[in-house]
Amino acid sequence: MTNQYVIGVDYGTDSVRALLVNAHTGEIAGTHVYEYTRWKQGLYCNPNQSQFRQHPLDYLEGLEQSITGALAQAPVAVRQQVKAISVDTTGSTPVAVDERGTPLALLPGFEDNPNGMFILWKDHTANAEAEEINALAHRWDTDFTKYVGRVYSSEWFWAKILHTLRVDAAVQEKAYSWMEHCDWISAVLTGNTTPGTIKRSRCAAGHKAMWHEEFEGLPSEEFLKALDPRLAGLRERLYRNTFTSDEAMGTISTEWAEKLGLPADVTIGVGAFDAHMGAVGAEITPYTFVRVMGTSTCDMLLAPTEEIGHLLIRGICGQVDGSIIPDMLGMEAGQSAFGDVYAWFQRVITEPVRDLLGNEAANELAKNLIPHLAEKAAQLPVTENDPVAVDWFNGRRTPDANHTLKGAITGLNLGSDAPRIFKALVEATAFGSKAIVDRFLGEGVPIKQVIAIGGVAKKSAFVMQTLADVLQMPIKIASSDQACALGAAMCAAVAAGIHPDMATAQAAMGSGFDASYEPRTDVSVVYQKLYQKYQQLGSFIEAATSQHTPVAEAV
Ligand SMILES: Nc1ncnc2c1ncn2[C@@H]1O[C@H](COP(=O)(O)OP(=O)(O)O)[C@@H](O)[C@H]1O
Ligand SMILES: O=C(CO)[C@H](O)[C@H](O)COP(=O)(O)O
């Protein structure tokens, strides 16, 4: 049999990577990472206001550079054997587009306007709009939030659109429609970005835009108009139908085939979010909980729709038929800060060193600090009197989204040194994970195994052991350090018809597992007590410092 290759393209928060994979053996023939240049300079962002925007040119340049970079590592003959490309991206990362599907920032007059750019998933400028959506949805005859855990988040599609239309009259005037990053970039590869004609991702639509068959698509025109008259008519200019990632969006355009040096008949798959394709790459099966563990976590759970579809799971980021694997219910949850909590502590320690001793000393310290603290923390006993922290340093994504909540550390004394505080922070992130697991179990969704992918899963044995102890569950680590791109490549192979379904693609192309963490019974017992303290502290913070009552609890 002649070799057939597929390309998975994974757009993360800071960079995009392309993976060139043999569709029959899973052998990696090339890979290349491209860091977004404008983003790296901090352009168009204002972290103090939680504004995070990305320029479409960063994505276009990254598409070309990452794919040509991966192809350059393989023999030239491989190019002619490339059959398909699929793309995953962060989300909800929407952009305003004109009648031809061009992001406004690519049009004259909008080049430097952050409101004409992609609004990155972690942008929280739309907190107020998310609250309005929740309040109206819970009063409306049909609760359009019912399949997204009954809590709409400021990280999502409609909140971001509404906020942008309100603050920028020029964008409101020019925006014909809106697109998620995963839809736009896949459409770009086909040469047709016209809204209304492209195949929109089921994953993006169902988890972030309240799309559901029961609603005949997106929330009703009446609901959207009641939210704000500025939304009138937009529903018609968005989409009715959505598509799963086993489907083809189209064929590569002549322009992109030439630019990348690929054949003219390359299939372009329907896009999806990074974590969902990551779950495919991590060989997810029913009732497997796949955690994408990095800066934040994105947690994926899969179940047969006929077994779980009748449940409405509270406080998660959605349950969507086909968002991970076709004809299965894909469920999403996650923590807004995970590795970012450790990164915060690292900054607290290194910044005064930078000021007093200069960059060289600070950079050297920063490079070694987390592994050093982890080594020291691993030697400490786990006792009921240890400091307890809460992990909501970037708000709480799940259970029950509330991005106004803050983190905390308690139980400090004069002996609380850096390793002890670091240990409490790691435990806090693990307790946040337990809250998610307990929510799924409490709502009647079993979890049969846990698989982890992402930077933290690969880099920190201490974090992963703590997590296994807190969850009281074994955790397997996927071998691939590019599981999202590998998942995208598997989706591409199915979209091109090389494999009949995702399970076959996973079996042929999967990279397996390279480590496993088993819970330690004696430590787990103590953690159950510390977890109760975490819950009490969380309740106190929620009552004392939250600027609003979490909506799921209020209804
Ligand atoms: N040795 C380590 N132990 C624990 N966390 C780490 C370690 N090294 C880096 N991290 C954390 O990993 C996170 C980055 O994860 P990664 O998966 O590489 O990126 P991203 O989430 O952007 O895809 C950072 O938040 C950082 O604090
Ligand atoms: O919420 C998401 C997917 O549903 C985000 O895409 C995800 O959290 C981004 O993560 P990363 O920075 O690791 O790419």
UniProtKB/TrEMBL annotation:
Residues 5-281 form the Carbohydrate kinase FGGY N-terminal domain. Keywords: Arabinose catabolism, ATP-binding, Carbohydrate metabolism, Kinase, Nucleotide-binding, Transferase. Residues 292-496 form the Carbohydrate kinase FGGY C-terminal domain. It comes from the Bacteria. PANTHER family: FGGY CARBOHYDRATE KINASE DOMAIN-CONTAINING PROTEIN (PTHR43435:SF4), RIBULOKINASE (PTHR43435). Gene3D superfamilies: 3.30.420.40. SUPFAM superfamilies: Actin-like ATPase domain. Its EC number is 2.7.1.16. InterPro entries: ATPase_NBD (IPR043129), Carb_kinase_FGGY (IPR000577), FGGY_C (IPR018485), FGGY_N (IPR018484), Ribulokinase (IPR005929). It catalyses: D-ribulose + ATP = D-ribulose 5-phosphate + ADP + H(+); L-ribulose + ATP = L-ribulose 5-phosphate + ADP + H(+). The gene is araB. Pathway: Carbohydrate degradation; L-arabinose degradation via L-ribulose; D-xylulose 5-phosphate from L-arabinose (bacterial route): step 2/3. Signal peptide: none annotated. Coiled coil: none annotated. This is Ribulokinase. Pfam families: FGGY_C (PF02782), FGGY_N (PF00370). The keyword Flavoprotein does not apply. Belongs to the ribulokinase family. NCBIfam families: L-ribulokinase, PRK04123.1.
